[in-house]
Design a protein that fits this description.
The chain is mainly alpha-helical. It contains eight helices and no strands.
Length: 209
């Protein structure tokens, strides 16, 4: 943390602490047994999750514009849009729950979950790209190359698009659409696994040694 920047340091510390809440609380909302069998827990955990998500979004936007980030304005704007979309989806998920429109609530909550994971998708997507190309193709010396500029937005817009396709396939009566979606998700699982392995080896692992 930067010395002499008390407010910014507090924001950073709070951002990191709240990230733990998001990491633990989010996946619990997706477990049907907890959602259906422990509804009070699901409601309160969901409230904490959505409030935390909105706080982190505003905190993240503040930090990228006041403390800087690699990648230039493309990455700053991409992160800011991610945060604003997250807040909008969280509010719509909450509103749908209050009006007992649970199908709409589920969809907006899933979109919120995807947007919360934008930074995660950026890292594992970036590492998959590097591994697939056997080097930092399109990254640029200042981390502002064409791939970085694309992935600054793609890290959450691409997963959102996949989610929308999944929801449409779920609603479809055509079994072919369901099978195609299942096959596509299987491929994306492998891509995700490769990205996680790459991030663990080259981004997180060296910091633990």
């Amino acid at each position: 943390m930067c010395a002499g920047a008390l407010f910014g340091n507090v924001m950073l510390a709070a951002h990191l602490a709240l990230a733990v809440t998001m990491t633990l609380g989010g996946p619990l909302q997706l477990i049907p047994a907890l959602r259906n069998g422990f509804r009070s827990f699901h409601r309160w955990n969901g409230r904490i999750y959505l409030i935390t998500a909105m706080i982190m979004s505003f905190g993240g936007i503040y930090m990228v514009w006041t403390r800087g980030t690699a990648g230039g304005d493309s990455l700053r704007i991409g992160i800011s849009l991610n945060g604003l979309l997250l807040v909008a989806c969280a509010m719509l998920a909450w509103r749908a729950a209050l009006s007992r429109r649970f199908d709409a609530h589920r969809r907006w909550a899933l979109r919120t979950f995807i947007l919360v994971s934008g930074v995660w998708f950026f890292r594992i997507g970036f590492m998959f790209w590097v591994l697939a190309n056997r080097g930092p193709v399109g990254v640029g010396e200042d981390f502002d190359g064409p791939f970085v500029r694309f992935w600054a937005y793609g890290c959450y817009l691409v997963p959102l698009a996949v989610l929308e396709l999944y929801l449409r396939a779920q609603d479809a009566r055509n079994k072919t659409a369901k099978h195609a979606m299942t096959a596509g998700l299987a491929v994306l699982v492998l891509v995700t696994a490769a990205g996680i392995a790459g991030a663990a080896m080259f981004m997180w692992g060296p910091r633990l040694i």
